[in-house]
Every structure is written in structure tokens, then in C-alpha cells.
Amino acid sequence: MISLLFLSFLSLILPPLYAQPLNRQSANEAVIDLNQFPLFIHSGFSLDYTKTSFSPTGKGWLGVSPSGNGKRSVRIIDYPEYSKHGYLSIRTNKIEEFSYLIPFFITSKQYLSFTSQPNGYLGLHLASIGDNWEVYLNGTLIRSEIHRDVQGNITAHRNYRDVIIPFSADIIRPGLNSLVFRIVGDPANPMVGLNSSDPYRIALLDFLKAQVNDIVDVILSLIYIFVGFYILLISFLNPYDNHNRTFGFFMLVLGIYFLVRVPSVYQLISDSEVLFKLELVSLFSILPAAIRFLNDLTPWTAKEKKISYFIYVLYGVLIILVILFPPALGHDLVIIWSFISLFTMLYIYGYLLLYKLFTSLQGPIPPSRETPNNKKRSELLQIFKVMRDTPIGNVFIGLSILIFTAVIDAFTSIVVKKNLVLSRYSLIIFTIGTVIVIARRYKNLFQMLSDASSQLEAQITALNKTKQEAEYKELAYRRIFDGTADPMIFIDQQLIIQDYNRAASILLKTDSPQNSDLIALLEQFAPSPAIRRSDISEIINKLLLTDRPFELDAQLELFKGNVQKWTLRFEKFKSDESYLFCIRFYLANPIYNAENCKKTKGIFVIENTLAAAESISNKIASFLYCFLPDHEVSMLWAALREMIINAIKHGNVNIGKVRIKYLITPKKALIQITDQGMGFDHLSILEKIKKGEQEFLKRHQGIYLALAAFDKVVYNSTGNQVTLEKVISYKDAHYAKNRYV
């Protein structure tokens, strides 16, 4: 093995050498192959390892060389320093933590390709990772799947395949970057670590989603399950349909086996230990189900019954052991299963198929006095007819293809540790052949299956569309959340911050308040008495019982030397199987003085979000309290908000930005709103509004409110810029001067 110092040296001074294999691009998409970089392993975990300045040159770090062929499996049990795996052991070991560190290099060209994309999101694609884990990129936590109780035991397992973790392109940088995995699990479990060989890569998020699209696999699996369940259902009450029932069961377990291996199943069943046991139970049931189907398809002898029942008991014992004992034993049982299955397949293929096929060929080929060439042609024609027209011939063709692809799958899984699973596609041929056999007795079955398949595809398409809409809504919400000027944070029931927006990090004077205790963070800003944990816990308990938001007033010194009364607004949100609680900060009573009520001006350029319109209109309206009564400010705020929203929706049509310029003095307020749109015929609209056409007023209430609230509403010739003017009387200004002292 290459020494640790040499690996560190390579990672720092020879990044272009690693970068050469990264030119594997599809549709001009840059891909960073992480298997082309060294990997370092250490027992235990520390947040210090996630820092970009950290170098894994200390004691206890184990270096793993880059992969020459792009394939590298790094399981804990593969390293004697860490492994506690005992063959066929049923002992459960204490949970341990491990750190995986991959220093990787991004060229300037790749960095430009990544950061020039419009959505600004990249993705980390992991072929597999387990058991519990967290991923840090350049010190930023981008995904956490740690589920442990207070004693440190794992409460939910997350051994996942084909994981795509989205992250912002702002996290990466040109040159050397650091990727750290916190791996948590039983050191005897073969799934702890990065247990598949490839791919492990970073690329554009859209590119990875297109590459790792399991919709076809899901559809095929659901078709198998539906076919199996349907055949079981229609043949359940018929005592002469044993072969149909066993074929239905065979299809059902095959469909379940394939379904639990696709990444989309994690959305239905998140605990991977449940999925792993379900996968092995279905896998161990496939061959016994195939034997029973073949025995029911053709008459079976007493000898065949004894052999078959022995096989049922053998596989039944494997299934019971899988259900009762830890996953580490399950992996050893898979090895035992592979040897048992080799002899089982020889029995199925050699005796139940080849031998019976040979006996079937004896009858259809009669003696002939034809020439040798004609006789050979006649025999081949008869063999073709037997294969085409007899149940045993149909099954022989389908199962031959299935066995061939299954051998390839076994080789790729055991030798190169890659999840290929070609047999899920070859099973289509086997399924069609067997369905033809059944269709000889049920002429309309194939059409019914075709209709059911179409319905399933339509349902999957609808589900996929719903998922895309949900992803779009989530992205839109994220833009609103990050774009608003109001500080917002999300906490869990333990008052730990789970998420925050940029305004909150600025207000709380910390770059990353995530995973911080809310009370501990606020206490540095709260004069005596501090905010009490019990008050917030009481509000959270109320939120759990009702959907109504709650507010809490607090005296906070968020600005040096200025203790102000803030209102904390609490709302409840559903997140997975638990709740998160949103806290929005805003000043309860803005404090003004005569010095601040002389003159103010400024320019805002905002994104196309309703949250930004809300925030900016509040900001500008707050300055008007110095000069106008509250009811007039409320009217001006409503009109200003509607005009900004008009610029976003109708001017920019949600594309571009809105520029807002304002000047407020004791004599007048001027506000200018400019969008990047083509403008509109404002003269005709203003004329119709003045006439008071009710239907027209409903569609243009923003302009109507502006005309009512401001003294002047003036558009430019194009119509993409409007200037709002409000004259402030001496009486109002004198009132404000005496009001704020």
C-alpha cells in the first residue's frame, strides 16, 4: 500500500494528474470522479476533520490509493484495523464512528462550468453509503442521516444506493477541495462504508438526475408485482390453476426483489434494514417459487417431490435466519445462498427443463426417409415448433436468458461490487414467454395485462409529474426563504436550529447558526432577564396542538448599544415524520427620533419574489412613520406593495429584477419603481379606472390603490416605470416631529 505521506503529497502537488480522467463528459457536463483521488480513513470523528485546512497526516490515518480503473469499494470490514466481522456471527457489536476524507481537485475549467449554470446547484452521487452517515463538503454539512438515541444506538438505518445529494455551487472552489464522510455503524456489518465500487462523482445536479433515473426500473418492478398479484387473485379459487398461482407468487417475489433495490423505494420505506431483510427474503424465495411453478406446469414424480421439499426447507431456514438476526449475518448467508443456488439452478435447468424438454422432443420428431440435409432441416423445424408451442419450450427459452444475465449480475456484484442487475430486464423475456403459456388457457389475459401496464405507466407518469411539481415548489419556497429581508430560522422540539436564511445569519452575527442551541445563541443578545427556555417550549407545545401561530416579545440588544423590543413569531411546519418551527424576527415598535426624521433616500434592486416585495414595502413604509399618521402609512404601504407586485408579475413576468428608488423628506415622498419588461398601455387603463369600471378595478387594484393613496402617479412613455409622489403637509410633519423625540 502507498504510504500515507506519499498519498498526501500526491493529493497536493499532482492534482492535474488526477484531473485527466475527469474528462468523461456527457452533453458538455463536467464530471469529477472521486475514485481518481486518494481516500483517508480514521477511527472516530471530529468536526476538525471537515475544515478545508485539515491535512490527514496525523497518527491513525489509513490511506487508500486512487483507483486505476475508476472502481473502488471502501468497506470497514475490508480493513483488519477496524473490522469486527466474524463469519456467521450473530453478535451485535457496539456502534462505532469512522471518518472518510477525500481531497479532490477542481480545475478552473470545471469550476467555470459548475458556477456558470443558471440554477447554481451541483450534486454528489454516491453509489452506496451506510449505515448512518453525514457528508461535509469544504466544512459545510450538505446531508445528514444520523439517527441515534441518547445511548448512541442507531434507531433508523440508512444503507442507501445511488444517493444524489444536491448542494450549492457556492460551496466548491477552484483548486483543492475537501469531502468528508462521517460513517456510523457496526464494524461487523459489510454495508458500513462505501460498499459499492462506483460511481462516486460530483457533477451538475440536472445531469445526475438524468443519469440516475430509476423510473423504468420502478415501472418494471410494479408491473411484475401487479402481474403476480393479479394472477394470484384470478386463480385463487380455482383448484386446477396451481401453476398459475405459483407463477403469480414467483412474479410477486421477483417484483418485490427488484423494487427494494431501486433508490426511489427509500421514499416509501426509509429504514434500510427493513429493506435489506425484505430484499433477502424475496431473493431466497425466488428459486423455490420457480421450482414449484415448473413442477405444477408438468406432472412431477415422487422423487421430484422429495427433492423439491428438501429445497423448500433449506431456503426456509435461510429466510428465518435473515429475519431473526442482524444484517451482518445476512451477508454471510448470501454467500451460502450463492453456493446452494448453483446446485439448485443445475437441478432446475438440467433436470426440470433440459431433461423434460428432451423427452418432449422424442414424440414430435417421427422417423423419416428423407435425405440427410432435408432430415436435419425437418428436425430443426420440429425443435423450433416445440420451443414455440409447448409450455416447457417457452419456459426454457426465457429461463436460459434469465440465467445468463443472472450469472453476469452475480459476477459484477461479487467481483467488481457494482449493482448492475441486468436480470431485471431479461426477466421481461421470461415473463412474456410464461405469460404466453398462461394465455393459452386465458385468451384475454394478455390484453388485460397490457391495459394494466398502460394504467401503471400513466400512474407512474402522474406520480413523476407530481414529484417534479413538488421539487419546483420546494425550489421556489427556498428562493423566497433565502431572498426575504426578514430574519427567519427553523428549530426542532429541542430548540436546535435546523435551518436559517441569510438575513438571520446577519442579524445573529454568525455565519452558520445551524445546529446551535437557540437559547444559548440569543442569550448573548438578551439583557437580564434572559429569554427563558420554558417560554419557548410552552409555545412549541401549543403549536403542536393547534395550527395557529404564536408570538413572543423579547428585549434584545441585536444592535450595539440599542436595546429594542422584538417580536418573535412562531409557526409550525411538517417535516418528514416530525415538526419544525419557524421563527420570524421583526421589530415590535420601531424607534424613531427627530434626527432620523429629516431626510432619507436609497435604492433597492430585488429578486422576483413576493417575499422581497413584502419586505421592501415594509422597509420604505417604516420611514414614513416619521412624517405621517399611522392610518395614512398603512394606506401607502398597501398601495406600494401592490405596485411592486405588479412590476414583478406583469412587468418582468417573473424574469429579471425590479429597481426601487426612494426619497423621503419632511415635505414629500417620492418612490420610483422600474421593471425590465416591455411596458403597457397605461393611458387607456388610467382612463378606465377614472371612469370607475368595476370589473376593470378588480383586475388593476394596484393602480387603483396607488391613485387613492398617492397625490401623483406618473408613468414613463413606455410604461415600465412609475413614479409615486406623496405631499407631506406642515401639520403632518409637525405632528411627526412632536411624536418622535
Give the biggest beta sheet: 6 strands, antiparallel
Number of helices: 22
| Through-space gap between termini | 76 Å
Strand content: 15-25%
**Overall residue-averaged pLDDT value:** 78
- Spatial strand arrangement across the major sheet: 3-2-5-10-7-8
What characteristic shape results from the CA principal axes? elongated
How many whole angstroms does the radius of gyration measure? 34 Å
Strands, count: 22
Helix content: 40-55%
Low-confidence stretches: 1-28
Structural class: alpha+beta
Task: Describe what you observe in this structure.
It is a single chain. This protein is an alpha+beta fold. It contains 22 helices and 22 strands. The strands form five sheets. A six-stranded antiparallel β-sheet has the order 3-2-5-10-7-8. A hairpin with a 3-residue loop joins strand 19 (658-664) and strand 20 (668-674). The chain is elongated and about 110 Å long.
List keywords for this structure.
22 strands; 22 helices; alpha+beta; elongated
Entry summary:
The protein is α+β, with helices and mostly antiparallel strands and 741 residues long. Helix content is 47%, strand content 20%. The protein is built from 22 helices and 22 strands.
List the topology elements.
Layout: H1 4-13, H2 15-19, E1 31-33, E2 39-43, E3 62-64, E4 74-75, E5 96-106, H3 108-115, E6 121-129, E7 132-137, E8 140-145, E9 160-168, E10 175-185, E11 193-194, E12 200-204, H4 205-211, H5 215-235, H6 242-259, H7 272-297, H8 302-324, H9 327-362, H10 372-389, H11 391-414, H12 423-439, H13 445-483, E13 488-491, E14 497-500, H14 502-507, H15 518-523, H16 533-545, E15 550-559, E16 562-575, E17 578-587, E18 600-606, H17 610-624, H18 630-651, E19 658-664, E20 668-674, H19 682-691, H20 694-699, H21 701-709, E21 712-715, E22 721-727, H22 730-739
Antiparallel strand pairs: 1-12, 2-3, 2-5, 4-11, 5-10, 6-9, 6-12, 7-8, 7-10, 13-14, 13-17, 15-16, 16-17, 18-19, 19-20, 20-22, 21-22
